Amino acid sequence: MTKTTAVHERPILTVDVALLALIDERLHVALAPRATAPFKGRLALPGGYVRVDEDADTEQTARRVLREKLGFEPAHLEQACTESGPARDPRGWSASVVYLALHAADALQPLADDGRISLHDVEALPALAFDHNRLIALAAQRLRAKSAYTSIVAHLLHDEFTIPQVQAAFEAVTGHRMNAANFRRKILETGALKETRIVPAAYRPAQAYRLAEPLTDFGQNLAR
Amino acid sequence: MTKTTAVHERPILTVDVALLALIDERLHVALAPRATAPFKGRLALPGGYVRVDEDADTEQTARRVLREKLGFEPAHLEQACTESGPARDPRGWSASVVYLALHAADALQPLADDGRISLHDVEALPALAFDHNRLIALAAQRLRAKSAYTSIVAHLLHDEFTIPQVQAAFEAVTGHRMNAANFRRKILETGALKETRIVPAAYRPAQAYRLAEPLTDFGQNLAR
């Protein structure tokens, strides 16, 4: 007990990134085996210590970790939550700031092909290092909740996409089926999409869109 | 630079609580002058270091801080975000896990009367200690965004309330005016309210409600 002293032991502060992508209409997460103890060899999220001599904030820690470990910059990165406690890391009381990263799946395939990551269905994960099963569940829950009132799922597509593609991603992430005309009306009402070009097609040409910046955060409830 | 060593300097980890209440239909935040340097005498949010020998997680740090500093247990407490960086605390690189706490204003009045806190309109704050002006803005933004699709504003009322009272709190927090019949239908659709009793009144008796547990998090968009 150190109650009578002014200085207390500092907790460990780490960042972990749940990088999610849609493969065959199911959410997948990027994992890699840990190179060192604890949990050496066990699959884990990309993550690492905050470096006080390098990182401007924890978001920059997340970006540095993805750059150093995967050579990768995600299409979307946002803070999900901070998990903490005495038991989640055997090295001591620790807090992890958890980031949700989203990207189109085919851009992750080269990383999987050269063995830097493997992609796993978030609903069928083995036992991971630390509390990473829980961190992934929290990040996926954040994505599902935000999908109902923002256009966040479009970050799982390429830069340019059609509205049926956004709807397919929305339905895959949330499990909600929607009438196509309703979905089109509601996603356009958010003001988050910008028209780019007409994509030629045999039956009916399709309007392509990209995301406007910044992402609308206080938008329509798409699921209604 | 310590790149070649395995052990890096650990950041400071603190918790700060933005305790919000509605007074005269405006959001107010509980502040107190800092007793010690840095920013001695400057108004600040209740907060403190994570204690690795006492706290089960950062939420317990938030509860301990409110208990020790204010002798107070809020009706609602949730994590809002984590702010971090080298410049926000002169003592070194720091991260603060920010909690949003909500309570009925009249229960905070005794704390204000005995000088433990003062209550300030969040839209008219002086320059506070650290980055606490920003932390309050982030917490209020979280409350406003969540008010659109949950019944979170009911935590600003007493345990028992009427639907017009919830609507008044919703309108005060979000700035959105709503048709009363629409609001009633949408808030009841969330399933978050339970009927308690009929409150007698001269003109028309009112149905009273309380919040069902747990709080519905993926609900209707009340603002539509």
Report on this model:
- The structure is a homodimer of 224-residue chains.
- Chain A has five helices and nine strands; from the N terminus they run ββββαββαβαααββ.
- In chain A, a hairpin with a 2-residue loop joins strand 1 and strand 2.
- The N and C termini of chain A lie far apart (53 Å).
- With 224 residues, chain A is of the alpha+beta class.
- In chain A, strands 1, 2, 3, 4, 5, 6 and 7 form a seven-stranded mixed sheet that branches. Chain A has a two-stranded antiparallel ribbon with strand order 8-9.
- Chain A is 25% helix and 27% strand.
- The first copy, chain A, folds into two domains: 136 residues, Nucleoside Triphosphate Pyrophosphohydrolase (Alpha-Beta Complex), CATH 3.90.79; 60 residues, Winged helix-like DNA-binding domain superfamily/Winged helix DNA-binding domain (Arc Repressor Mutant, subunit A, Orthogonal Bundle), CATH 1.10.10.10.
- The interface between A and B is large, with 38 and 37 residues.
Structure summary:
Chain A is an alpha+beta fold.
Short key terms for the protein model shown above:
Arc Repressor Mutant, subunit A; 2 domains; disordered N terminus; homodimer; 224 residues; 27% strand; Nucleoside Triphosphate Pyrophosphohydrolase; elongated
List the helices and strands and how they pair.
2 copies of one chain form a homodimer.
Chain A: E1 12-23, E2 26-33, E3 43-44, E4 47-49, H1 58-70, E5 76-85, E6 94-102, H2 109-113, E7 118-121, H3 132-147, H4 163-174, H5 180-189, E8 193-199, E9 206-211
Parallel strand pairs in A: 1-6
Antiparallel strand pairs in A: 1-2, 1-4, 2-3, 2-7, 5-6, 8-9
